[in-house]
Amino acid sequence: MKLCVIGTGYVGLVTGTCFAEMGNDVSCVDIDTAKIEGLQQGKLPIYEPGLQEILDRNAAEGRIAFSTDIATGVAENLLLFIAVGTPEGEDGSADLQHVLAVASAIGQSMDAFKIVVTKSTVPVGTSEKVRAAIQAELDARDIELEFDVVSNPEFLKEGNAVQDCLKPDRIVVGTGDVRTAEILKELYSPFTRTNHPIIVMDVRSAEMTKYAANAMLATKISFINEIANLCEKLGADVKDVRLGIGADSRIGYQFLFPGVGYGGSCFPKDVKALIQTAKAVGHQPLVLEAVEEVNKRQKSVLADKILAHFAAEGTNPADTTVAVWGLAFKPNTDDMREAPSLTIIGQLLDAGVRVRVYDPVAKETARRALGERAGLTYCTTNYDALEGAHALAICTEWGAFRRPDFQRMHEAMVDPVIFDGRNLHEPREMRKKGFSYFGIGRRPVA
Fold this sequence. Notes:
It is a single chain. By secondary structure, this protein is an alpha/beta fold. It has helices at about 10-20, 35-40, 50-60, 70-75, 95-110, 125-140, 160-165, 180-190, 205-235, 240-245, 265-280, 285-300, 300-310, 340-350, 365-370, 380-385, 405-410, 425-430; strands spanning about 1-5, 25-30, 65, 80, 115-120, 145-150, 170-175, 200, 320-325, 355-360, 375-380, 390-395, 415-420, 435-440. The longest helix is centred in the middle third of the chain and has 32 residues, at about 205-235.
């Protein structure tokens, strides 16, 4: 099939590239000239494992192209995927200006039947606004053309997005048109050969499905973090509690990993947007509000532990240095949006602590997010970050942090103290290696 993906951000780029990988002819369009010029040269604006190889292969074979010409993209393709950003508005709701701008551009350029597919994460009812924006442009041109608007939400995990796209758990298609549903089923059939379902539903339910999925996952994270904090108060160990509850098939183990809170481009924004959607129709979303509040508090837990430790030792924070391993909100990405490390580092710097930070991928995106602040040093290796450190804070669960050279760590650090925000290590094992160790919901070993 021939299709156009409008927006070359995270979702649009992964989606378009994977469509090309399945033999489709894909035109990716964006108004960002610099980004398009880079993509035409094979330069990715994001880090995502496996994406570069697939892009290079399909670009070389002519199945994917990049352009700033939306009019041509609309004219030459039946399927038009909207994959632009929906940033958080001032009140927490999703900002639809980019989505509706694309819809208007489609209405200005289309000259035949089109299927407009919303990939962007949008509130319930957005497809009706997209339809109205397109129709307004057709009315202004005084022409009558048939078109359909479909909700087809993405369920990609950063760091595993290529595999999520190529081998999805499910495909959700929101449409009331049988013909359109069959076209989308044909497009996605190569992706579902392992019998994972293509679920067709009404448009509003499809839009809600995306928000409900992310809200549910965020809820599991905030729940286990709440339990972890309670374990610390009661002398229990959250690792054992997780094993005990996760063995129940109704609960499972996925997303029950205590830590420093969730971040990224999806969970924080989508939980807030769903809260605002609920309030707009007169419903108070008590659970969602609690999920957000717990996560906000959780991002401060690790820095609070570190500062409390220094206070107990009678140490002035201004005389201390803390190494931070991991800056991105999760491993295998350079995404710093809503990363817990931002809160943790900010708290430490505000308290006068010198902070030396390292991330294997996100150094430059972190520099853009944090800036150049007094007391903040960006390091080239994880061991470099440890030089002169009175404590180590682990904020992201990169694989390299699971089995480091502990002897080398001892040699670099002033005090062998670890605050593990991702529970990568066992407290007793760390004590045997000569470290004071503090996890999240774990029994501390000093």
